[in-house]
């Protein structure tokens, strides 16, 4: 008589969730079609009216240096607008955009888009005791504005920490190691959620669990098979179970 034995490996419970914003909690189109054009159009007047303020000047000077030593604010504004058009991840540009968006949010010119499943899951995870963190190429102040003035209300109280590119590039494994150290967690106890496979590759290299968000509104052609690079794949936050050994254990989650 033959006996078959199945070995079940139980992984440590994931207790910290690190999420991207654009294409993950929120649509890419909102950022591309609302936030970016707003910042681009508002830049000239904003720099003229607020360029003397220390926080604004700090980032203008940083951009000017990186652009080759531009001395004229008018020329610098044109350069910054070019960076907006190119979707540059330059830290100074992101900081300035955040300052511009602050005015727009405060005047209720717009509210930040959230996929409905995202705030529901974030609230549930927070209530269950999971620590939530945000890591985006947008500046930390811009992230807080996004979550503070979202369509789902003020989500900032749910978030324990915020990270932007000042901690490092999102496609650099070292950035995720720094984040793990900053929040006092072992990398294996953190799951990173993103729509960008290259970012997930870097997070996995650093030892984090990973989940690919494949939003049909942002990516009409499903990304499955080899394209996922082996990352668990979901189309909604509702399919993610951060308290289980497998951070995404819905049917078909592996892509």
Topology of helices and strands:
Blueprint: E1 16-19, H1 28-50, H2 54-66, H3 73-85, H4 91-106, H5 117-127, E2 131-135, H6 140-148, E3 159-163, H7 173-183, E4 190-194, H8 197-205, E5 209-213, E6 232-234
Parallel strand pairs: 1-2, 1-4, 2-3, 4-5, 5-6
Q: How would you sum up the major sheet? A: 6 strands, parallel
Query: Which shape, going by the Cα principal axes?
Result: globular
Content-based structural category: alpha/beta
Strand element count? 6
| First-last Cα distance | 38 Å
Helix-strand sequence: EHHHHHEHEHEHEE
Describe this structure in words.
This protein starts with 15 loop residues before the first strand and ends in a 21-residue tail after the last strand. It has 255 residues and is of the alpha/beta class. α7 (173-183) crosses α8 (197-205). Strands 3-2-1-4-5-6 form a six-stranded parallel β-sheet, sandwiched between helices. β4 (190-194), α8 (197-205) and β5 form a beta-alpha-beta unit. The chain has eight helices and six strands, in the order βαααααβαβαβαββ. 41% of the residues lie in helices and 11% in strands.
């Amino acid at each position: 008589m033959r006996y078959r034995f199945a070995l079940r490996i139980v992984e440590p419970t994931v207790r910290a969730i690190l999420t991207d914003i654009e294409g993950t909690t929120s649509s890419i189109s909102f950022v591309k079609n609302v936030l970016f054009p707003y910042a681009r159009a508002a830049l000239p007047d904003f720099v003229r009216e607020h360029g003397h303020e220390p926080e604004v000047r700090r980032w203008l000077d940083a951009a000017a240096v990186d652009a080759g030593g531009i001395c004229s604010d008018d020329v610098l504004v044109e350069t910054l607008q070019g960076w907006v058009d190119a979707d540059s991840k330059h830290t100074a540009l992101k900081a300035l955009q955040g300052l511009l968006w602050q005015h727009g949010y405060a005047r209720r010119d717009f509210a930040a888009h959230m996929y409905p499943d995202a705030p529901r899951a974030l609230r549930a995870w927070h209530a269950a005791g999971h620590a939530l963190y945000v890591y985006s190429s947008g500046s930390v102040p811009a992230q807080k504005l996004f979550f503070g003035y979202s369509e789902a209300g003020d989500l900032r109280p749910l978030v324990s920490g915020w990270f932007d590119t000042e901690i490092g590039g999102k496609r650099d494994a070292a950035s995720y190691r720094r984040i793990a150290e900053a929040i006092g967690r072992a990398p294996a106890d953190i799951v990173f959620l993103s729509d960008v496979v290259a970012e997930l590759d870097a997070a996995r290299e650093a030892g984090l669990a990973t989940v690919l968000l494949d939003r049909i509104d942002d990516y009409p052609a499903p990304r499955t098979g080899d394209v996922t690079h082996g990352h668990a794949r979901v189309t909604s936050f509702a399919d993610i179970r951060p308290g289980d050994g497998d951070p995404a254990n819905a049917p078909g989650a592996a892509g």
